[in-house]
Amino acid sequence: MNPETIIEKINDDIKDKIQEAALTAPRRINVKVGRERLNEVLTYLKEQLGFTHLGTISGADLGESFEVVYHISNAVTTVNVRILTPRAEPKIPSVCAVIPGAILYERELQDMFGLVVENIPDPRPLLLADDWPAGEYPLRKDWHFNRPAEIIPGGE
Amino acid sequence: MAILKPILYILVYPGLIFLMIYSTFCEWYDRKLYARLQNRIGPLHTGRSGILQPIADIIKLFAKEDIVPEQADKGMFTALPIFALAIVCTAALYLPVWHYTEVPSFISFPGDLIIVVYLLSLPTLIFFLAGWHSTNYFSAIGGTRVLTMLFGYEIPLLLALLSPAVLADSWRLLEIARFFQGKPLLMLVNIIGFFIALIALQAKLERVPFDIPHAETEIIGGQFTEYSGKKLAFFRLLGDIEMVVGAGLISAVFLGGFPGGLLPGLAWFIIKTLFVISLLAAMRAALSRIRIDQMIHFSWRWLAPLAVLQLFIVIIIKGMVS
Amino acid sequence: MEYKVALGPQHPALHEPISIRMTLDGEVIRDADLKLGYNHRGIEKLAESRTYIQNLYLTERICGICSFSHQTCYTQGVEKLMELVPAKRGLYIRTLVCELERVHSHLLWLGVAGQEAGFESFFMYTWRDREVVMDILDWISGNRVHYSMNTFGGVRRDIDDLQKKKILDSLGLLQSRTEYYLNLAASEPTFVGRLAGVGKLSKEKAISLCAVGPTLRASGVPMDVRKDDPYAVYDEVPFEVCTADSCDVLGRAVVRVKELIQSYRIIEFLLKNLPEGPFKVKAPRKVKENEVYSRYEAPRGENVHYIKSNGSDKPERLKVRAPTLANYAATIAMLKNGFIADIPLIFAAIDPCICCAERLVQLDDARRGESQILTFSQLRAMANERYKNVNFKKKDIAWPF
Amino acid sequence: MSIKIAPFIPEMLRSLFKKPATVKYPFEKTPVPPGFRGNVVFDPPKCIGCMICVNDCPAEAIDIIRVSETEKKFKMILHNDRCIHCAQCVDSCPTKTYHMDSEFELAVLNRHQLKIEYKKD
Known about the structure:
The structure holds 4 protein chains of 4 kinds.
Chain B (H helix, E strand, L loop, with lengths): L3 H8 L4 H22 L15 H10 L11 H20 L18 H22 L3 H32 L4 H10 L8 H14 L11 H4 L9 H26 L7 H25 L5 H30 L1
Helix pairs in contact in B: 2-10, 2-11, 3-10, 4-5, 4-10, 5-6, 6-7, 6-8, 6-12, 7-10, 8-10, 10-11
Chain C lengths: L1 E6 L11 E7 L2 E8 L7 H5 L4 H9 L6 H16 L5 H29 L3 H22 L8 E2 L2 E2 L5 H26 L2 H7 L7 H6 L4 H5 L7 H4 L20 H24 L17 E9 L2 E9 L5 E7 L1 H13 L7 H7 L4 H4 L6 H5 L7 H14 L4 H4 L4
Antiparallel strand pairs in C: 1-2, 2-3, 4-5, 6-7, 7-8
Chain D lengths: L8 H8 L23 E3 L9 H5 L5 E5 L7 E6 L8 H5 L5 E3 L14 E4 L3
Antiparallel strand pairs in D: 1-4, 2-3, 3-5
């Protein structure tokens, strides 16, 4: 099994479920899917091709929409499964049913981007402080942090 | 003179003053040896080679803020450290260190071995009460661990101390010591008992590998979690004095006591207790902390049967000797 | 009777703040839950407003122990974005520092395991020996903790023959000492008794919970980024992926020990085959729009940086996933039905680096721009305030026993 | 590997008679290795005011101010309380204006004392 055969297999088997699949770098495959098909694609990758290890889930703020990338690896290659979700309705499906280890990453996404993960087993905030104000999502591009002036204690 | 002697006995030697000074010295010795066994230096800067470090620690603790938890029973919480310290100091008075003459110390009586063992068990109960009254989960866990451990080591300790007493045909520390001074070769009979008593003493002092009740990486300070300031200082001092008394008890019972009157007796006391403390320090350095279930398992699987075996050996030897 | 205890955020077994909320039944843990977020510094957000070169040192400061892991992971990602081929000698030196860092981290872990198990002598001996490798790192990089060896296109400092000889000499000493002490520790019944059979994590569970590093390898899964996705010069270096099948803390210790021995061999190989030539090449300052998913085998497991560039000299997004975060889910599974006494060992067995795992967020006070220096009395007043405001019911605070 | 009783005893006894490994640091100074990254030292005559170091400094610890409008004279303010001693400025500078010394005991009671000004006389 090598990246080329994997991408062939993906194109053969689930062509109808994905929007795009390409080999972007050595040992990296980019797959674009619609968010409603995410769980099906991940199940296929896990069960047919042995992609069991979810490296992480990264989010990025693209302005109009949020991009969520699931980095999932097996022994030879890594597939970046990419979904887009509009800013107006930032919902993504939970993948915990397929990959139980995804829970912490999904909670992190909720905290940082304000994405709503549907059917998440444990929706509590993970990383932000207890008294963090609701509705503030620090990794969104429109969230700015104004650095306060530095105060050096003591006299001159 | 008749009144002066008990007062001197209680206040100076082997009473409070001597105990305080000697126990801090023993703590320093223990720490220094422990450090050297680990290729470290240990205390260094307070006094010559850091000899005043334990005293400095106690002074530091006395200067700290004293906090009593809101939910705790204040009277109990405050009284426990003082009681425990008093009990251990009382136990020290029974050690046969004063004049080794035909007239034994005024406090000695037939059966004082049992009294010392009993008095050394009481601090354990006080540790449990201290943990329980702190109203802190970690303290409560520590307190229950104290009691659980007590069931493990107390019986082997008693059995181990029993065998020399059986051999010497006396329950009086002074007479056991005198018996072994007369027949030093018979000390070898009790070699198993000696090591059992050492291990049980280590457990009583709650030092590695038996520091389970206040294992700091597991339950913070165990029964002492909520204690601070003076009260913690009392508990620390208690630990040091208990170490001296325990070492003294083992030297009196297994190593032939402290013969030769006041000054040679003192010298023997220091030599023998330091020997026992060295063994305890080596044990502390060589072993890793065990779990509470492993500890109970160990004491009932190995310590208690070996103590019984020791008793049998002693009974057989006694039959052969007499 | 079941009761709840919070272990942390301040606890002697934890060297960094995290809270483990446990439901206990006597000495047995029935349930465990982690609360993170005590150590956030806003690094991911900060990285978006800094240049690639500034981020080199920012990523290094994600962690103190595996500083080089984060920096290398980031550097390799950015090099791929720049389409830059680093100098060969630079890559060899980079790999050398990687392995030296692995040695120092694993020796540190062994000491910590000894300390958590209450075995101070082992802790002292391993940490004394760890000083040897710290001195080597100090010698070749100019600092003990933050080596700052990486730059885009290679490394910043060369290694001369004297350093090479010194490293090889100390390495021999280190290797013999490590083997000697490990043999001793492996035959010490109280120590082995504390590690064996503790914190079981089955192979299936380890895979499904996405554990990484020695935690995963001790469950019999031979996953190692150095083999699966070779970076730097790992495709030229002979080494084995170390695994164990016992699935417990002892297995994790065995894996780390085997990796130590492997690392010594790798270092020896690298030094003996160090190619001649330049140790760095010139790198551009701007990066065209692209994205990269960079993987790195840190001492604690797979370290991941996801970098998105937008054509300027600053990254659009830098996502860091430290190995510790990936192991948390597995830790909770391991803690269940263990003893309280095993918590520090199980938790230490993933080699937690809590500040690695938490990188993002702003302090509330910083936003208000007020002075952040609080006096003792102010802190005390704050605590009292908070205590008064918490609406306790009398029933809740009653001591349960 | 077999289980023994107290296998550490011989090693412990050996340690007892060995010189302790402890470094008595503040009382006995240990030398730093060559190439140690200590304080940043600035050499004002060499500066050409290109500001690369200011842009590259990850800790924003360097300020370079032009002293006179006509001449190429610059003064540098080093905020040593922010400096992380990464030596990126040494690498970045095209005219080798910077170097690092081997000083590492930098603690002071007042952060203002860590602000160092280098000026060409």
